[in-house]
Amino acid sequence: MTVTADGPDAPAEAPEPLPPWGPWRAGLAILRRDLFVTAREFPIFLAQVTLQPLFLLFVFGKVLTELGYARPGYEQVLFPGLVALAAVLTGLQSTALPLVIEFSYSNEIEDRLLAPLPIGAVAVEKVVFAAMRAFIAAAVMFPLGIWILGSIPWQADTLAAVFAMTVLGCLLGAAMGLILGTYVPPNRINVTFALVLTPLIFTGSSQYPWPSLGKLRWFQVVSACNPMTYVSEGLRGLMAPSVPHIQTWLCFVVAVVALLGLMVLGMVGFIRRALG
Amino acid sequence: MSGGGGQRTDGGDAERHPSTGRPAAVEVAGLAKRYPKAPVDSLAGVSFRVEDGEVFGFLGPNGAGKSTTIGILTTRIRPTRGTARVAGVDVVSDPVGARRVLGVVPQQNNLDRSLSVRQNLLFHASYHGVPADRRARRADALLEQFGLADRPDGRPDDFSGGQIQRMMIARALMHAPSVLFLDEPSTGLDPAARLFLWEKVAELRGAGTTVVITTHDMEEAATLSDRVAIIDHGTLLALDTPAALVHGMAGERTLDCSVEAGEGAAGDGLLAAIGALPGVTETERLDDPAVNGWRVRIHVEGEPAPFVAPVARAVGDAGARLTDVRLGEPNLEDVFIHLTGRALR
């Protein structure tokens, strides 16, 4: 071993200059930390994100259909909706809960806010990472669907669009979580989750096709206000075009606009929380 | 997301040291902060300079503006007015660049609980772009230096307050910052952990690291700092070496007297009587009249001992009784009381 300045006294030496370092790379380093922690607990993570959709698939898609309470073919309606549900919900939970904890109880986020990258980039990293988790949750739905339902609706020529719409759903959910996680005070998060999550799950057109709601006009209007509706409807149009659905291009446009709006709002909330 | 991140953007107007050519470690001018809806400024136009390699102490009670100042210097709080530079980098116009050259040890534990001690250090360095090979070497050296080498794989939750504090310092040093900010580092530490911390700060100073430390502990400020800034109500009241601050005190020498007030002993009259003695420059009451009497601090010229008899006589004449006398050299606490009119705690 050569004698260098790197004995126990090394930290006492004059600071060595660091190589050039862009904010992009700091952001990637933070993402790497999140992936590292998730990878270590991957089985727990999978159980966490698949259990709810699994039961929804089984009870609504299998049990009710076999007992004759749901018409055959209901799974055509249900499956794309549940993919959307898994994407949006997992995205939301993957940003909202950690942010609430990190901003109040653990302060863990401080070390990242003090890293050499813009504060807003830390929020973007949170959303990207949450969307990655959400995408895994949504992707897992496909083998689960084949296993439980026997077959799932799909079209070979729309696979790329299905992928894009799913990613949009993941990002949408993560952006909603960014808003919840930064605007809601920590002592209110339980109440907020109950008040937000349940309506979000049941007005997002994941269990019913939106155009068939003509007889329940008020509920149709409520559902139209939930951005998740456009993910459910978009996926339905792409995977099971014979089911009535909102036009796919419209779904993409509304989802993108909603994502941009939610991101702006979420970033403002995040920066406000992060800066005094 | 580009620009501003990479290089030290030494501002053109940052004043440089005449011999080293390096900018001041910290340079603050007219810095002020008013929080939304607050009636007054939390920081009311503060200016000071911290030289390279100095340990600079910020002394003041809670709410004096210490943490606001540190918050601004570490890019976490935006100032309302004024400028602040750390190692020549403007913290307002280039916060990303500033974060590269400063290290922060906060008051509260903010370690990553999902990571081990060593991983906390390694990931912090990776956020700051320390190359992978250098990261590992540096982490091991710092764990050793801060007495944490025996449990590098433990989770932060399993360590004591003193060890957590040391982990946060080690983590902050991973990217070799030009200036290290320690915010109330010994709050909540037991005496042994506090001494260990002081030793480490002294070591850092010996190695030439600039340290800015906030405290409401007089002894800590006096022991660690090359210079101390006394701050209260958002205003800088004094700034000098601990010795010079104490030396500049009115009267310089003191008698601390405990007085048991008898029937009808008028308090203000008593203070006036003592104050009228030749050689007495100032008298002050240290706490409110209590059941057992008062504490009075008497500032005198020259040696305090010859004043004991005249003071006792004056007390007796006022119908009170002298129960205790302590002759004192002034310390930072006296400086603080002198400047603010009240004790720190």
Task: List the keywords.
heterodimer, A: 276 residues, mainly alpha, disordered N terminus, B: 345 residues, alpha/beta, Rossmann fold, Alpha-Beta Plaits, 2 domains, six-stranded mixed beta sheet, four-stranded antiparallel beta sheet, 11 helices, elongated
Oligomer: heterodimer
What's the total count of β strands of chain A? 0
Main sheet strand line-up of chain B: 6-7-8-3-9-10
Number of helices of chain B: 11
Q: Compute the CA-based radius of gyration of chain B.
A: 24 Å
The assigned structural class of chain A equals mainly alpha
Overall 3D form of chain B: elongated
Query: What is the beta-strand fraction of chain B?
Result: 25-35%
Instruction: Report on the biggest sheet of chain B.
Output: 6 strands, mixed
Strand content of chain A: under 5%
Description:
The complex is a heterodimer of chains A (276) and B (345). Chain A is an all-alpha fold. Chain A has one domain (39-274). Chain A has helices at 23-40, 42-67, 74-103, 109-113, 119-149, 159-183, 189-202, 217-224, 228-239, 248-274. In chain A, helix 2 runs antiparallel to helix 3, helix 3 runs antiparallel to helix 5 (119-149) and helix 6 runs antiparallel to helix 9 (228-239). The longest helix of chain A is centred in the middle third of the chain and has 31 residues, at 119-149. The model of chain A is unreliable at 1-15 (pLDDT under 50). With 345 residues, chain B is of the alpha/beta class. Chain B has 2 domains: 26-245, Rossmann fold; 250-329, 2-Layer Sandwich (Alpha-Beta Plaits), CATH 3.30.70.100. Chain B is built from 11 helices and 14 strands. Chain B has helices at 66-73, 95-101, 117-127, 132-145, 161-173, 191-206, 218-224, 242-247, 267-275, 308-317, 332-340, and strands spanning 26-33, 43-50, 55-59, 81-86, 89-90, 102-105, 179-183, 210-215, 227-232, 235-240, 253-261, 280-285, 294-300, 320-328. In chain B, strand 12 and strand 13 (294-300) form a beta hairpin. Mean pLDDT of chain B is 84; it is low at 1-12. The chains are: A mainly alpha (276), B alpha/beta (345). Chains A and B meet through helix 1 and helix 4 of A and helix 2, helix 3, helix 4 and helix 6 of B.
